[in-house]
Specification:
globular; D-Maltodextrin-Binding Protein, domain 2; single chain; 10 helices; about 350 residues; alpha/beta; 6-stranded mixed sheet
Length: about 350
Amino acid sequence: MIRPVCRDVARASAERWRPIVRLAQFAALWLVFGVLGERDAVAQAYPSKPVRLIVAVGAGGADDFQARIVASKLSELLGQQLIVENRPGAGGQIGETSVAKSAPDGYTLLFGGGSMTGARYIVANLGYDVLRDFSPVSLISTSPYVMLVHPSVPTHDVKAFVALARTRPGRVSFATTGMGTGPYWAGTLFSIMGKIQAIEVPYKGAPAAVVDLIGGQVDYYFGSPVTALSNKAKTRLLAVTSATRSPMFPDVPAIAETLPGYDITGWNNILGPAGMRPEVVDALNAAIRRSIAAPDVRDRFLKAGFEPTASTTDELAKRIADWVERFGKIAKQAGIKPQ
């Protein structure tokens, strides 16, 4: 008789609690669908006003060129204007730091370069941490640098150039666009792997560096592919800096063919401040992917020597972390200390 009574008590207890359990289940479902509905509404509402796209270098350069093409296409797709705002200074730190400290609402974005990932090894009191203070949105493009030499340099391949430079320690020089920029890292790695002692000559921008290369004030320079195309009559294209040959210059060897393991490429991305809502990041990422896939955008990028390359946010986050580590190794080998 004990067991039936226990069953009756248990059944009565279950009946008493069933309405409360159902109410809790309903509340949980309401919460889930409410949150999803809210996220969907936010994504559909974004953007509701113009978006600023900060370019941390001056107008007219490669970053500015790409940013304006992408901004124009994104304006069409998002239905709101993306305003490109150049904020140069301090090697890009002024514009980059301003975005890192902006409200994470998706209305202030950064068109940045891969050299940002090496900034911590150059600047002692950097205003941001690239791994902590930004929300990765999407990769935009990749491209190798090209190694250009003055025509008077009596070598026509990397192997001969390295051999010559080793006989002239401290007497060969290469131009850069400043400490911590892409050309700086390319030249630094070349010196390390080629075991040469070269003098870095910094300039405020690529145009000034190319002028002095053409004038014979410096021996070589690592620049963008478009620099090689527009100055092919006045300079000699010796190699590309990517791990393999570039489709743009199939007959030009990669430095890695002489110095195995050499690989420095330029790349650009769009970032936002840390803490951006995932649905806003996703909306931007989707629009960027469509922009980069557009035939007119691809054509303009390729003609200028840039490979249009979108990515997922996770892929971009991994790339950033990988390059932070890569530049750290180069800085250690070169004895570079933050200043």
